[in-house]
């Protein structure tokens, strides 16, 4: 019954208003330079994770990655102490090096991310064996659903999106600057990874993106976990692609096709030109969607 509910949710989502992605050219690669996004906000697009550097009279906060490269980028913007680091999602590269705690910062994350970091585990996307984080490198402040951070004369809203890509996914939103960091929920150049083993679902990613779309306008700056910044239209295209591929796979599953038969039908083929340049290939994404829709819950 739960499987049918998931299939139905994806089928119904196809009729919600959104711009469906066309097979257009993929976006250009992100620059590693530090660039201004709005008052007090700068984007560091180098390394493996996009990081927003939030600066002002109260100090500096990093949102996204917190490796040595992100800390060095923050120093290009301000010499003020790095007080906080907000994790938008889990990826081993996000914390490469001496991380936020080594810079005297307080690490903030959703509850599930601290649990994941506290024990040795294998990263589902890369297969990399990750050691348990040292006690001093674990998040100090955690939250369940939402968190508001008031710093530098503005506010950051942090919203947990459950059952999406993986444990601890959040959307970080600065209302005054109209900027959102959506982590790995969105990749302008690639299909998403879904951590099925830890509760990730395609329907959860779609629901998370729809939450962002409902709040965004044409001027909103959308920062993904990787790649160039985007806007509401680009995010709407991505949501449309996810729904379309999910619906096609659901239809094939409903016809009783095997995984090999579903792959042969190329349900994501229409979108490979635009989203085929990321870390997740079309076939792997289809395998994940198939596994999501057919697993026991």
Molecular structure report:
This protein is of the alpha/beta class and 297 residues long. The chain has a single domain, classed as Metallo-beta-lactamase, Chain A (4-Layer Sandwich), CATH 3.60.15.10. 31% of the residues lie in helices and 21% in strands. The chain contains 9 helices and 14 strands. It has helices at residues 2-13, 68-77, 99-102, 111-117, 202-215, 232-254, 259-264, 272-275, 282-294; strands at residues 34-38, 41-44, 51-54, 60-63, 82-86, 106-110, 121-122, 129-130, 141-143, 146-151, 154-160, 170-174, 179-183, 221-224. The strands form 3 sheets. A 7-stranded mixed β-sheet has the order 1-2-3-4-5-6-9. Helix 1 (2-13) packs across helix 6, helix 5 (202-215) runs antiparallel to helix 6 and helix 6 (232-254) crosses helix 9. The longest helix has 23 residues, at 232-254. The chain is globular and about 60 Å long. The termini are close together.
Structural class: alpha/beta
CATH topology: Metallo-beta-lactamase, Chain A
CATH architecture identity: 4-Layer Sandwich
In CATH terms, the superfamily is: Ribonuclease Z/Hydroxyacylglutathione hydrolase-like
């Amino acid at each position: 019954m739960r499987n049918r509910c998931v299939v139905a949710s994806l089928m119904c989502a196809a009729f919600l208003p959104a711009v469906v992605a066309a097979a257009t050219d993929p976006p250009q690669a992100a620059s590693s330079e530090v660039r201004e996004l709005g008052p007090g906000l700068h984007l560091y697009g180098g390394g493996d994770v996009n990081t927003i550097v939030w600066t002002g009279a109260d100090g500096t906060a990093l949102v996204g990655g917190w490796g040595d490269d992100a800390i060095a980028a923050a120093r290009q913007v301000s010499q003020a102490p790095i007080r906080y680091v907000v994790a938008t999602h889990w990826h081993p590269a996000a914390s490469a090096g001496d991380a936020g705690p080594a810079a005297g910062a307080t690490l903030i994350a959703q509850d599930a991310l601290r649990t994941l970091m506290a024990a040795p585990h294998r990263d589902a996307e890369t297969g990399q064996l990750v050691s348990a984080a040292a006690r001093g490198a674990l998040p100090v402040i955690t939250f369940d659903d939402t968190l508001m951070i008031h710093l530098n004369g503005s506010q950051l809203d942090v919203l947990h999106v459950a059952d999406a890509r993986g444990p601890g996914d959040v959307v970080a939103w600065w209302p005054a600057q109209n900027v959102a960091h959506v982590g790995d929920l969105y990749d302008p150049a690639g299909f998403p990874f879904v951590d099925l083993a830890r509760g990730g679902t395609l329907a959860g990613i779609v629901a998370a993106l729809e939450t962002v779309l409902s709040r965004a306008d044409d001027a909103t700056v959308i920062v993904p976990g990787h790649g160039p910044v985007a806007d509401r239209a680009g995010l709407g295209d991505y949501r449309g692609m996810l729904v379309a591929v999910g619906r096609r796979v659901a239809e094939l599953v409903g016809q009783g096709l095997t995984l090999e038969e579903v792959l042969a039908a190329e349900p994501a083929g229409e979108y490979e030109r635009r989203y085929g340049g990321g870390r997740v290939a079309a076939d792997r994404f289809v395998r994940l969607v198939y596994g999501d829709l057919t697993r026991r819950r």
